[in-house]
Amino acid sequence: MDYEETFSSVVKSMAYKMMFNRAAVLDLEIEQVDVDVAFLNSTIDYEVYVEQPEGLEDGTGRVCKLNRTLYGFRQSPRAWYLTLKDFFHSYGLFTAAADNSVFFYEDIQVAVYVDDLLIFGADKAKVQHLKIALNGRFSMKDLGPVKWYLGIAIERNRSERTIKLSQKAYLEKVLSRFGMLHCNADEVPMAVGQKLQRASSDYEAEREFTRTYQEAIGSLMYLMLCTRPDIAYAISNLSKFSANPTGEHWKAVKKVLRYLKGTSDAKLVFRGNATHIQGYGQDPLGGYTDAAFADCPDTRRSTSGYVFSVGSGAISWSSKRQSTVSTSTTESEYKGQFNAALEAMYLRNLAKDLWPEIIQGAIPIVVQADNNGAIGLAKNNMGHSRTKHFDTKPKLCQEVEETGIVTYQRVDTEDNVADVLTIPLARDRHRKLVKEFGLEVSWPGNKLKDPRKSATEAKA
């Protein structure tokens, strides 16, 4: 079953950020456990045979029938997930509808990343009881209160109700890997007005250079997905050239690395303010959306972006080039609203299981945008000669508005937080909007050239 496919139970980043946000507001316990040799815990209910292990052959040439999965076996991750799911279901936990790697019941929630488990709960005794049950079923390491998760440092102040996520250690490894550990800091990830284009048709990048470029983009993409929405636009833009990068593209990658060098201590902060200390109160789930019309010089497609947060910290963001060409700013913004509506529906379904208080029953999720035409189209389902060519998919904007799932509201362009996800911004405005994401950053001043800069770095 699924022999040609690989599968692992991996919690989505939006889900664990929502859970961290909720834990900060409600002062929940967060315990971490790691299952030893997880795949060996899974039984197989179908016939699979393997060759005799090296060094243990009996000379007969016979094969071994597996009773349990092995590492390197394609079905092992899937079998492990099913084994763990059966355990949680027998314990009384349900699978979250929006993320099958999250299990919950009342005030207990568990996030699963293959064999790494996070347990959230208000009652320490209940959390401990679940850990004992897990240890009775599987061999595991009890790591206690969470401090590191998926390469993310977790800094917590329970008296102030804050949880801060940082990837400084990971970032320093990336900087060191590409010879930029002692580089000069930069103030923004991309220069204002910068328009990168594809290489000419007669140019072909060297294989080693292409691989280095792709490794850099992949390393930064993980950073961007977890804790650094401030580089989302730059990484989205630069990733388009991964197949055939040029020196100009690599120069832009190094600018992002220099920006990260100057902001390496950035932390994504979730906090519960003083009015929430006594109960479940919290600012509702809401977001921003924006689009840059025809900003890609090669395809003339637009870039759209959105960000959603609960209270202080962002839990979901995106910056992507649109799949089709738009003929007006209204059309590009409308497509951006469509993408935001999809994400709002997903987050709403996730919150129904994990944090129902933030969606406040039938009250719609507010998505703020800065284009009156696109907002008007969503609110008034009327045909028009200038919109009859629109794709049918963006009609979802009208449906979610009519059904009360999402409502679009006007926000001034200067205050549209999603602007940082669609265009390069000047330093002061970039810093202002990054703060709205919930990022805590010590911005660099004017720094002199670091005398420790290595020869490898100079060559890079």
Compact summary:
This protein is of the alpha+beta class and 460 residues long. It is 33% helix and 20% strand.
Would you give an account of this structure?
With 460 residues, the chain is of the alpha+beta class. It has two domains: 13-147, Alpha-Beta Plaits (2-Layer Sandwich), CATH 3.30.70; 168-440, Nucleotidyltransferase, domain 5, CATH 3.30.420. 33% of the residues lie in helices and 20% in strands. The protein contains twelve helices and 18 strands. The protein has helices at residues 13-26, 76-91, 124-137, 168-177, 207-226, 232-239, 247-262, 329-354, 372-379, 396-402, 427-436, 455-459; strands at residues 29-35, 49-51, 63-65, 94-95, 102-105, 108-113, 116-121, 140-145, 148-149, 152-157, 162-166, 267-271, 285-292, 303-310, 313-321, 365-369, 406-410, 439-440. The chain has a six-stranded antiparallel sheet, sandwiched between helices. Strands 9-10-11-12-18 form a five-stranded antiparallel sheet. A five-stranded mixed sheet has the order 15-14-13-16-17. Helix 5 packs antiparallel against helix 6. The model is unreliable at 274-280 and 446-452 (pLDDT under 50).
